[in-house]
Write a structure and sequence with these properties.
The protein is an alpha/beta fold. The protein is built from eight helices and 14 strands.
Length: 251
């Protein structure tokens, strides 16, 4: 929720078992924002209807009209949770028939390598219809693995901090490098300087350094009282730059 607030996206957020549902008028803005939430592996923009078979088929048929072109092939992947008067195979068969008829019979069914795949998930009294998964960064929820202090004085230090955030650590930044990337992924990002470092040092579980394998001999780990992590030690400078460029393109 804090990410949506930071990005000024108006939305209603609810949850049910293993799913989180976000209802937003601006779905593109919501997707851009939510892709930055660590712990989320993927998301989909879905049409919602009741779990009634007839209503699902009607909505699936209408949904398909703007997503299938004449001559294209399609498949329906259906699954359900809860008690319903139909099974997943029956749902897929009926929805597929409705989609085929809605497109005038000018499309083909291909269950192996379809041009378009329609997904139908039925959960209790609701059904969700969508045609794609938007991949996110996955990882672990931010803060679930404790706090670390990251030295962010260059690009390698920046990526090292980001990788620890992806691993679920709440990063406290020490350094002078541009940290717009980190702020985009943590609306509550905190900073430390020499005046208050001792206070944070008592609460952290590790220190993070942006060090390459070649520079490891220059690091004196004896000065640290907690473990020291080197997330980018096996990466070349080109790999660091490439990964940061990809991350920046998404925010």
């Amino acid at each position: 929720m804090s990410m949506l607030v930071r990005d000024k996206v108006e939305a209603l957020v609810t949850s049910d078992n293993s799913r989180i549902y976000v209802n937003a008028e601006d779905t593109d803005a919501a997707v851009r924002s939510l892709r930055k939430v660590f712990g989320a592996a993927s998301m989909s923009v879905a049409e919602i209807c009741t779990s009634d078979m007839k209503e699902i088929c009607e909505n699936a048929a209408e949904y398909s009209r703007t997503r299938l072109k004449e001559g294209q092939s399609f498949a329906v992947r259906a699954r359900r949770e809860g008690q319903h008067p139909y099974n997943s195979m029956e749902l897929g068969k009926e929805a597929g028939s409705a989609i085929f008829l809605a497109n005038g019979g000018k499309v083909k069914v291909d269950l192996t390598k379809p041009d378009v795949t329609f997904y139908i998930e039925v959960r209790n009294n609701k059904a969700f219809i969508f045609d794609s998964y938007v991949r996110a960064h996955a990882g672990l929820p931010l803060g679930s693995q404790g706090k670390v202090i990251a030295e962010v004085n260059d690009e390698r230090g920046l990526l090292s901090a980001w990788l620890m955030m992806k691993r679920g650590c709440r990063v406290i930044v020490h350094g002078t490098h541009d940290i717009n990337v980190l702020e985009a992924f943590d609306p509550s990002l905190k900073f430390v300087d020499e005046n208050n470092r001792d206070r944070y040092q008592r609460d952290i579980l590790g220190n993070v350094l942006g060090t390459s394998l070649e520079g490891l001999d220059d690091v004196d780990v004896s000065q640290y009282t907690v473990p020291v992590y080197f997330p980018t030690i096996g990466m070349s400078d080109d790999e660091v730059s490439l990964m940061l460029a990809q991350i920046r393109s998404e925010i």
